[in-house]
Write a structure and sequence with these properties.
By secondary structure, the protein is of the alpha/beta class. It has helices spanning 5-29, 37-56, 58-63, 68-89, 92-108, 119-153, 157-177, 184-199, 213-216, 222-226, 256-264, 271-286, 323-335, 356-363, 405-408, 462-468, 470-478, 485-492, 499-502, 508-527, 552-564, and strands spanning 235-244, 250-251, 254-255, 314-319, 341-349, 390-391, 402-403, 416-421, 441-444, 538-540.
Length: 577
């Protein structure tokens, strides 16, 4: 080896890092909808070259002073690119790719602070080393937060528990090691995380929110659904998901409501796919942990495929948008819709500028309820003069933050499936029969959420919970801790089904949302002793009477479920006809 060759390799490595980081910054700054994926591909290409260099010449690089955290930073960027691609394309293999890299980084401790060789060396290092140690500590904190999001989406409960404990201990260690540094923001992150995991019991032990062919698809009904194929059939290929509430449950920029809806619009991987994920994780964990780099094969996740499943619909997750931003996103996506596509728009937002009202709506605390009754009869907006919009804003009053039904009507030139979870959802009935070209399908939440007296029903939208996890929502409503199989047959064989529903019924994701709406409406109907429209969700156009709450075939499963769970005394089956 010639003199200076190691330093030459290190200079090449640093130059490639700078070039890759510039491409990464451009890819990161682009919105995760519409075009722009070529920037992601360029960044991947740059990091592929960088990764191969450190694999091929890592002895030279180590001799020249390459540090473990530098390799961890490169691997972390690759994981972030995979996660961004997952958000952009909804490809499960990209989520797996992010998990593989993050798990390998974590298991090898790339960001772990190295212990000084001796006390004199530590003293000689001085303030510069302490400052660099602090920077690396921040990198580790941010890395674990990113890893947690991926682990929650992958439903890796053990990994989530382990990472939460590590994040908590790391914050405590950081406060002790750097007493002059304020870690208040990370204490807030821990509080948000604890609140999120407490509200989202679905990440542990319960059934996945994703669409599972084994449980959500009924082959016997395919012939009945096929009768709509002779007419126009629309497929869900694009969705816009947004939630905006003050003090809502969230972790990083993922709110609880969008987290649930995001998963419900994905296919549950098959068994063979899950085995492949496990093998990849083990390979990533066990490969060459002795060196500073290890061997993480950048092509691992590109080999994952599941030919048994169709593609997931692409989703644009918009975190706390302004009204103008949301409209701009919708306009961009609508321009790219194909003729056989339908756009799902999901909005969870308060109807009041004083968004403390949302927490009363979402959690349905017993403080809203009269002492003598389990059910509120007060209208939620009796103290305000406007209930014709939802509110997209942090505080204050003013029209720019109000989203009106009229704002969405221009997009009815395209097929729309609209889901509104808000106490002002009824305002969006105005879209029905006012469409500009395509009749829209609407699922609208009740104006008032429901709860047993004294039962805390968690956080997040109750309507959203029913649409994404109906059994958990039922148990929460009934105040118990922890299906609707026949509904699909009834709906698919109904004679009077409006063509708006008929042309979207063949899509499995939208069909499941409709079925869960039917279940939600029936449960809430029998939960109240007297009919009160403000407690019930609404759909437009109307569904057939065969799936109304009064229909025997709809009532019976709810009754049997309540009896089997020994909570039938909390419903009113006898006096409702």
């Amino acid at each position: 080896m010639a003199d200076g060759e190691p330093s030459g390799a290190y200079r090449e490595f640093k130059a490639l890092v700078e070039a890759a980081d510039r491409k990464f910054a451009r890819a990161r700054d682009l919105p995760l909808y519409g075009g722009g994926d070529h920037h992601s591909r360029k960044a991947f290409k740059a990091y592929t070259r960088l990764w191969r260099l450190q694999q091929d010449r890592r002895r030279d690089l180590v001799a020249a002073g390459l540090r473990r955290w530098e390799i961890g930073e490169v691997a972390s960027r690759i994981g972030q690119l995979y996660y961004a691609r997952y958000l952009r394309t909804a490809e499960p293999r990209s989520l797996v790719g992010a998990y593989v890299f993050y798990e390998a980084i974590y298991s090898r401790g790339y960001f772990a602070a190295p212990a000084p060789a001796n006390a004199s060396a530590s003293a000689a290092a001085g303030g510069g080393a302490k400052h660099q140690g602090l920077l690396i500590r921040y990198k580790e904190l941010r890395f674990i937060a990113r890893f947690l999001v991926v682990a929650m989406l992958m439903r890796r409960a053990e990994a989530v528990d382990h990472l939460v404990a590590r994040l908590r201990s790391l914050v405590q260690e950081s406060k002790s090691a750097y007493p002059k540094t304020n870690f208040k923001e990370w204490k807030q992150v821990l509080q948000e995380l604890d609140r999120f995991l407490k509200a989202d019991g679905a990440y542990k032990g319960s059934r996945s929110l994703r669409y599972d062919n084994l449980f959500d698809s009924y082959a016997s009904n395919l012939a009945s659904i096929a009768r709509f194929h002779s007419k126009r059939v629309l497929k869900l290929k694009e969705a816009v998901l947004t939630s905006y509430h003050r003090n809502e449950v969230k972790f990083t920029e993922l709110t609880l409501d969008t987290f649930r809806m995001l998963q419900s619009l994905e296919w549950e991987p098959t068994g063979s796919y899950q085995i492949a994920v496990k093998e990849l994780t083990e390979n990533g964990t066990m490969s060459d942990q002795s060196g500073p780099s290890g061997l993480i094969d950048i092509h691992l996740s590109t080999e994952i495929s599941d030919g048994n499943l169709p593609s997931n619909p692409q989703r644009a997750i918009i975190y706390h948008p302004t009204v103008s931003h949301l409209i701009a996103v919708l306009a961009t996506i609508c321009e790219e819709l194909s003729q056989d596509s339908i756009l799902l728009i999901y909005i969870s937002a308060s109807g009041l500028a004083d968004q403390n009202a949302y927490h009363k709506y979402a959690s349905s605390s017993s403080s809203r309820l009269r002492p003598a009754s389990a059910f509120s009869i007060n209208k939620p907006n009796s103290h305000t003069g406007s209930d014709d919009h939802v509110w997209l804003g942090p505080r204050g009053n003013g029209g720019p933050n109000n989203l009106y039904p009229e704002d969405l009507i221009p997009f009815t030139r395209y097929p729309l499936f609209l889901v509104i979870d808000s106490e002002n959802s009824h305002a969006f009935k105005a879209i029905h029969n006012a469409e500009k070209g395509e009749p829209a399908a609407l699922l609208l939440s009740p104006r008032i959420a429901s709860a047993m007296p004294g039962v805390e029903s968690g956080n997040g939208g109750q309507f959203t919970y029913f649409l994404t996890a109906p059994m958990q929502a039922f148990c929460q409503l009934a105040g118990i801790t922890s299906d609707i199989d026949s509904y699909e047959e009834i709906l698919s064989t109904s004679v009077g089904l409006n063509i708006v529903w008929g042309q979207i019924l063949p899509d499995p994701f939208l069909r499941r949302l409709i079925l869960r709406f039917i279940f939600c409406r029936a449960v809430l109907f029998y939960f109240h002793p007297e009919e009160n429209g403000e407690h019930l969700p609404t759909c437009l156009p109307g569904l057939p009477e065969s799936v109304s709450p009064n229909a025997k075939a709809i009532k019976t499963p709810v009754l049997l479920l309540a009896e089997n769970l020994v909570v039938s005394n909390r419903f009113h089956f006898g006096n409702r006809t």
